[in-house]
Specification:
Structural class of chain A: mainly alpha
Largest sheet of chain B: none
CATH topology of chain A: Four Helix Bundle (Hemerythrin (Met), subunit A)
Number of strands of chain B: 0
Radius of gyration of chain A: 21 Å
Radius of gyration of chain B: 18 Å
Oligomer: heterodimer
Largest interface: A-B, 84 and 75 residues
Order of helices and strands of chain A: HHHHHH
Shape of chain A: globular
CATH class of chain A: Mainly Alpha
Distance between the termini of chain B: 47 Å
Order of helices and strands of chain B: HHHH
Strand content of chain B: under 5%
């Protein structure tokens, strides 16, 4: 086993283990903090895949933005002091069967298919190339994404600040 | 067990795809079973992360250009927008119903 393999298995263990904690923990605070380790593990997998810019973006946006947003949502919507912050589940048995079937199908497809995976390129820094692609081939999606972000942020502010009509 | 069997080879494309499949299934499980709307949101984030892992693994091993990275960037952008709006909606639901259990918010059914 090379160092790459060892790093992969450690990161995969962190990612999958903390993802299992996310979906199985009864306490939503534990789930939110386990999601932190999942995001960091996925960022490590991106580093193994030579995606340095995506890894940094993952840490910045997912850990710095989305996870903080989720934790704020948890704090604002659970009565932390009155009742324990347990969350309930429903249909656990059928869900395990269905998701197990989905996972088995995906495993079968992945392991049986002859993938075209002979390239295994090694980039030395992807940021400059990503910037060039964003300004040439992907210019229209880039601009549309900026408009989408603007509209989404405005909409989120408007939805969250609307006063409740007293009836 | 399957991971152990394929672990005989050195780490390649299939290993990353299997991590993506595991994260996808766990995300589906969280979306289906949890009553709390924020837990459903966390499941969706897991699903989006699994899709991103697949994009970047294929970008490295199969296409050897950066199209997968660009797709992953747009997925991350849309995930950020989606999380902001979803949290705003959840806060509004909590303000109106004093709960965010998605099986108790059934006014349309009555």
């Amino acid at each position: 086993m090379s160092l790459f393999d060892v790093a992969f298995y450690v990161l995969a263990f962190i990612t999958v283990g903390s993802a299992i904690v996310v979906v199985s923990s009864r306490n939503i605070i534990y789930s939110a903090f386990a999601l932190l380790f999942t995001f960091f593990g996925v960022a490590g997998l991106y580093v193994l895949l030579n995606a340095d810019f995506i890894a940094v973006t993952q840490v910045l946006i997912y850990v710095g933005g989305i996870l903080v947003l989720i934790i704020f949502g948890v704090m604002l919507t659970t009565k932390v002091f009155d009742v324990p912050v347990k969350t309930e589940t429903l249909h656990v048995g059928p869900a395990i069967v269905v998701t197990g079937a989905i996972m088995g199908t995906l495993f079968g497809v992945i392991l049986k298919t002859k993938w075209f995976d002979i390239l295994n390129v090694q980039w030395d820094g992807t940021t400059k190339k990503i910037g060039e692609r964003l300004m040439t081939d992907f210019l229209l999606p880039f601009e549309v994404a900026s408009v989408v972000l603007l509209v989404a942020l405005l909409g989120a502010v408007i939805i969250a600040r609307r006063e409740r009509v007293k009836s | 067990m399957l991971v152990n069997l394929s672990g005989l080879k050195s780490v390649g494309l299939e290993h990353f795809l299997i991590i993506g499949a595991i994260l996808f299934s766990l995300g589906i499980y969280a979306v289906v079973t949890r009553k709390n709307a924020i837990m459903v949101l966390m499941g969706i984030e897991l699903i989006l992360n699994s899709a991103n892992i697949n994009f970047i693994a294929f970008s490295k091993y199969s296409t050897a250009d950066l199209s997968g990275h660009l797709a992953a960037i747009f997925v991350i952008i849309l995930a950020a927008a989606e999380a902001a709006i979803a949290i705003a909606i959840v806060l509004n639901i909590y303000k109106n119903f004093l709960t965010i259990n998605i099986d108790e918010i059934d006014n349309l059914k009555r």
